[in-house]
Amino acid sequence: MSAAAAAQVGELTGREVIIAGALAYWCEGAKSKPYRIDEQVRFANSDPALIRFFLRFLDQAGVPRQRLRYCVYIHESADLEAATSYWASVTATAPDQFLRPVIKHHTPRTSRQGYNADYHGCLRVSVTKSSELYRQISGWAHGVMTAKRLGPE
Amino acid sequence: MRNLRELDDLREQAVALRRAGMSVRQIKQVLGPIGNRALSDALRGEPPPEWTRRPNAKDDLRAKARELRQQGLDYEEIVAQLGVSKSSVSLWVRDLPRPPRVFPEECAKRAAERMHRYWSAERPVRAARRAAASAAATASIGALTDREIVIAGAIAYWCEGTKNKPHRRADRVTFANSDPELISFFLLFLDIAGVPRADLAFQLQIHETADVESAKRFWLTLTGARPEQFGKISLKRHNPLTTRKNIGDGYHGCLRVDVKRSCELYRKIAGWASAVTSDAEAPD
């Protein structure tokens, strides 16, 4: 069922990458608030496929990879080095290009699931000098969410 | 050198011109080169004509500046009030005692006032610039094809919807969000995916301190759903220690959208989302 749906999608056009990427950013990225104007592009996620898709979106938006900064968020009880090299391979970046990781406390009382060999923490991708890009993304996302449906051709 | 006789002539002429009502400057122009000392000696005892005693052009401002200085204003403030140059103010008031030193708190207060003035003017300008940039991007999107809506909706679901986990398999479509635009878009996506609106169930999740009734009306209007489709409201406790910003008139809580009998739809969405994200791995 899922595979059939996947086949139906096929390859994406550049416009489709922009549409989906802007919406993904609106869901998962850092947003400016009325009480805290902050227009920097920051996207954090634990899903490697979504991270890769976001990188593709940034390529499509014309952001050079040198402007990206990566930062791993991970629990202190997990394997930081393994996680760093994991995200390095996901993003095709050298591990020494990563910013200092954010180490989260492990509370033994919580019943966090998803904590197993597959746990790599989260990766935050931020873009330097990105306020113009932020405005573009927020505009695109707003355009997508409020868009009219084109009548069937 | 002039001889004494010539000098006497000059003196006489100077006195005559003075009596005719000329100023020292004008007399010098008529007589040509003559020393200041010689001229003032010649004119001793001759009162200057009345017209040279005219008031200075800015006498009133000068008096005002001295008054302000005595009240303790600094040069900048006097300049701001009178619209004269700072050097003029300096010339006019430099003999008066300096006002007492301004204390740091007062300095900080004034700086804060200046900042406030600056930003009250600058903030709207910048907000307009930001809005214009976003509006241009919005306009570039235009209307969406069904395919584009499916792609974007599936990604939105993958970000905000409920997903199966290794430890919890549900295969159900549930989407929760506080952003009304995103909820509207998700409903449009469901329309295109072929879900009848009657198959939707909604739940409002909101803090107990908010205006629950108006939030409910807000979401009813937005979704166009019938009231029966709204289940029991999930009331969240308000923790007074937190500094939540989602309060006030703009806060409508979250809306959860459940699709009934959605096992198949869930699998489709998962397929679409994975196609969109895994396409990224393909070399361009």
Describe the overall structure.
Chain A is α+β, with helices and mostly antiparallel strands and 153 residues long. Chain A has one domain (13-107, 116-145). Chain A is 41% helix and 14% strand. Chain A contains five helices and four strands. Chain A has a four-stranded mixed beta sheet with strand order 1-4-2-3, covered by helices on one side. In chain A, α2 crosses α3. The two termini of chain A are 27 Å apart. Chain B is of the alpha+beta class and 284 residues long. Chain B has three domains: 4-53, no CATH class; 58-120, Arc Repressor Mutant, subunit A (Orthogonal Bundle); 146-281, no CATH class. Chain B has helices at 4-19, 24-31, 36-42, 59-70, 75-82, 86-93, 104-141, 146-160, 180-192, 212-223, 263-278, and strands at 174-177, 200-207, 234-236, 254-259. In chain B, strands 1-4-2-3 form a four-stranded mixed beta sheet, with helices on one face. In chain B, α4 (59-70) packs across α6, α8 crosses α9 and α8 packs across α11 (263-278). Chain B is rod-shaped and about 130 Å long. The termini of chain B are far apart.
Provide the descriptors you would attach to this structure in a database record.
heterodimer; A: 153 residues; alpha+beta; four-stranded mixed β-sheet; 41% helix; 14% strand; B: 284 residues; Arc Repressor Mutant, subunit A; 3 domains; 11 helices; 54% helix; rod-shaped; disordered C terminus
